Each structure stands twice: as C-alpha cells, then as structure tokens.
Amino acid sequence: MNAADDVLTILRTRSLSGVLEREIEKAILAGEIPAGKRVNENLLATRFGTSRGPVREALRALEGLGLVELIPNRGVFIRQPELEEAIEIYDVRTVLFGHAGKLLAERATETVIARLRDYLEQMEAAARSRDFDSYYPLNLAFHEFIIDSCGNATLAAQYRGLVKKLHLFRARSLVQGGGLEVSNSEHREMVDAVAARDPERAQRAHAEHVARAKARLIAACRKAAGEAQPQPN
Amino acid sequence: MNAADDVLTILRTRSLSGVLEREIEKAILAGEIPAGKRVNENLLATRFGTSRGPVREALRALEGLGLVELIPNRGVFIRQPELEEAIEIYDVRTVLFGHAGKLLAERATETVIARLRDYLEQMEAAARSRDFDSYYPLNLAFHEFIIDSCGNATLAAQYRGLVKKLHLFRARSLVQGGGLEVSNSEHREMVDAVAARDPERAQRAHAEHVARAKARLIAACRKAAGEAQPQPN
DNA sequence: CCGTATTTGTCCGTATGTATG
DNA sequence: ACATACATACGGACAAATACG
C-alpha cells in the first residue's frame, strides 16, 4: 500500500487538490522535505500518482498558509522562519490566546469549564508520574480545546495558522515545554481565572502563558548561539 | 486596450498566476462579481486572455486568503461573511490593532511619531472643511502606516487579511466612519499615547478605536434590520 | 561564457460530475 | 425521473526559463 493508493482511497470525498494540500502539508510539517529546500513538482506528482496540476494548486494554497514560498520560475521553497519572525509569531499568538482566554471567561459554559478542569487533572497526573509521552498530546489538546471553545472561529483559524508556521522554525525543539510543573501551574491559573468568570485575569493568565514560552525560546536560542559561536556582539 | 493586454504588459515581472491572483482579488473587492455568486473559470480565463490553469491556481490562493470558497465539483463562490463573522473579525482586529499601538509606543522612532502627527493634522484639516473625499484615503493611509510601523510584519499581514475579508461584508457601507470629528479625537488620543511612550494607554486607545467601529457596525445593522423587517426577536 | 539538461509555466483535450429543462 | 448542456477536474504536451557542467 503506497501513498498513491491512500490518496485514491480518500478521494471521492474531497477534490484531489484538497487531499494533496493536506498530504503535502503533513509531509512538510513532518519534516520529510528538508526545510529551506526546493520542492520538486514532478517528484510530488509521481509520489502521489497524480499529474502536476493538482500539485501546483495545492502548493498555491500552502503559500497562502505561509508554509511555502513561491518564487517565479524558480520553484517553491519550504519557508523557514528566522528567530525574528518566530518572535513576531509568538507576539501575535500571545495577544490572540490572551483574547481567547478573555472570551472564555465571558462565555464558557459550565460543561466547558468542567472539561478544562478534566484536562488539567489529567495533565497534573501525567506530570506527577513524569509521563512526558502522554503529557505532550494532552497539552496540545488542552490548548486546542481552549481555542475552539472561545467562540471565535476567525481567531481560532488565525491561531492555528500561526502554530503551523512555528513548526517550521528550526529551533522549535529547544522549547518543548518549560518543565511540567511550571507549565501546569500556569494552566491552573488559566482555568481558575476562567472558572472565576474574571475576563481580565483570564486574559492575563493566557497571554502570559504564551509569553513565557516565547521568553524560554529566546533564552534557549541565545544560549545555543552563545555556545555554538561565542562571538561577542 | 483590454484587460488581457494589461496582464500581458505586467507579465515578465510576475508569474501569470500571481498577476491573476491580484487582478481577481481586485475584481472581487471592487464588487464586480456579485457576492455569494459563483465565479466562472472560463469567463475569467477568456477575460484575462489566459487558459484556465493559472486561473485555478489564483483562485486556490484566494481561498487561502478567505476571499472565496471552493466547493469540489461545484465551483468557487465569493465568500460573504454574515454579521456574526464580521463581529468575530472586528474582535480580532481590535486586539491586533491594540497590540500594534502598544508596540508603536514602545518602539516608534521620532520620525514615525512626526509622521503620525502629520497624518493627524491633514485629517483634521480635511475634517474641518468637510472634505470627505480626501479624508477617507488619508484615514486609510494612517491606519496602514500604523500597522506597517509597529515592527511586526506577521501582525501586519494578518491584519490586512482581516480587513480584506471585511470588505466582503455586505453591510460594510453602513459603517463608513462615525463622524469625522469623533474619529479624529480618537486618532489624536492614539497618537498622543504613542508620543507619550505609554504602551498601555496606546494599546487601549488603538483597541477602543476599532472596538467603537465594531459597535457602530452592530448598531447600524440592528437598526437596518429593524427598519427592514420589524420582527421582534 | 556557452550549451545542455532539468524544471517550471502555460495551454488544451478529455472525462466526470452537477444543474436544468 | 431522464436526458441534455455545461462547468469543473484532471492529465498530458509544449514552450520558456533557470541551473549546471
């Protein structure tokens, strides 16, 4: 069973271009294509068993998502954000996530709050037993749930786009959480603020949670740069 | 001189798909294609004197910008946000513009501040002489300048995308400014806060400026709905 | 600096699916 | 409900530009 068969199976539901868009996006985010390098249209077409038309359309769509860059007569290149852009993205994420927290405090139903608490307990359990493998997806789902529950689909879409772009940042791996306990205490403050129906406090808690991740990233990069090339500047 | 010649003239610089993307976007935002209706690929292709390939690629890109919606085997439709989505967009715009104001207060050079004051004076002059025709583009340029000067290109790109989507909202015309004097007093507070290097105050001023536009839009829509179809709900 | 090979950009033909009488 | 007309979806081929030797 190869990739081409997979695509043919899923077809009938979506247009071929749509399937390719998701598949190529997956391949890019999985790092199958070396970041910064050019992607070959013919290679992708043969890999998925289609012609180049749908591939080109999919790549055009991915350009809109900011995952690739199209240079005329040169080809498409996987975008690779520099530290500066990563900081920019974190900044925007901060305000968006903060606003999501505010909205949540204003409009979350009791069911939503209960589920937030549930996530929190599961994450705390995983943290206690140092079970990082189960903590990471929980953490992801927790943030996804917040964004989806804030009641602003536009905000959610923008936020998701930013997260995808951040995945292309090479030094992303440096900031895989800042300690499970630290992260969890921040999560608890977020949920408490929402449960207390305090929009301002919730906004601050959510924003600072992302801002701290940004700070950790910057610190890690500076440290790595300092160790790698100890040139004063 | 028809559209096809125009395109051929611009060519050589950009790829044909890229040109078509901008041209079609312009046509959509200009309202040449009835909102909500389906766009015909063949028509667009013949109109611009190209084949359907580049047209499809351009439409795919526009889908990513959220201007059109592609339904497989059905065609592409001009997206037409409902009031609910317009409110969502305004909400996100509010936090983004507020953050831009904060960044501006933190990092604007004296040159930037001087230019902000310059815009302000020109707009106040236009307001005094009730010269709406020159006020509107000034107002637009003022906001563009703010977004471009805040030093966060990611934020600027997202903001622009939101503004474009709002152009597709049918009731957009209802909210063409809330009085020149009112708008200008808000502008003055924005610039003063930035000049005072007060990030928090600048954030509040910028955010409230957009939030008031949102409030005016909602009020205008409710009023129009009430007049058109006076059904209690 | 030039020629060749590869890749991108574009066009056209055909099949499949949808809307309409 | 069926047949016809039309639009979209995809594949393949040609031309142009770029990259490499």
Short note summarizing the structure:
2 copies of one chain form a homodimer. Chain A is mainly alpha-helical and 233 residues long. Chain A has 2 domains: 3-78, Winged helix-like DNA-binding domain superfamily/Winged helix DNA-binding domain (Arc Repressor Mutant, subunit A), CATH 1.10.10.10; 83-228, GntR ligand-binding domain-like (Four Helix Bundle (Hemerythrin (Met), subunit A)).
Output the keywords.
10 helices; three-stranded antiparallel sheet; Four Helix Bundle (Hemerythrin (Met), subunit A); mainly alpha; about 230 residues; Arc Repressor Mutant, subunit A; DNA-binding; homodimer
Explain what the structure shows:
Two copies of one chain form a homodimer. Chain A has 233 residues and is mainly alpha-helical. Chain A has two domains: 3-78, Orthogonal Bundle (Arc Repressor Mutant, subunit A), CATH 1.10.10; 83-228, Up-down Bundle (Four Helix Bundle (Hemerythrin (Met), subunit A)), CATH 1.20.120. In chain A, 71% of the residues lie in helices and 4% in strands. Chain A is built from ten helices and three strands; from the N terminus they run H-H-E-H-H-E-E-H-H-H-H-H-H. Chain A has helices at residues 3-10, 16-29, 41-48, 52-64, 83-107, 110-128, 132-149, 153-167, 180-195, 199-228; strands spanning 38-39, 68-71, 75-78. Chain A has a three-stranded antiparallel β-sheet. In chain A, helix 2 crosses helix 4 (52-64) and helix 9 (180-195) runs antiparallel to helix 10 (199-228). The longest helix of chain A has 30 residues, at 199-228. The radius of gyration of chain A is 20 Å and the shape is globular. Residues 1-12 of chain A have low confidence and may be disordered. The A-B interface holds A 14-15, 17-18, 53, 56-58, 60-61, 63-65, 70, 72-73, 85, 88-89, 91-92, 95-96, 98-99, 103, 152-155, 158, 162 and B 14-15, 17-18, 53, 56-58, 60-65, 70, 72-73, 85, 88-89, 91-92, 95-96, 98-99, 103, 152-155, 158, 162. The structure holds a DNA duplex (21 and 21 nucleotides).
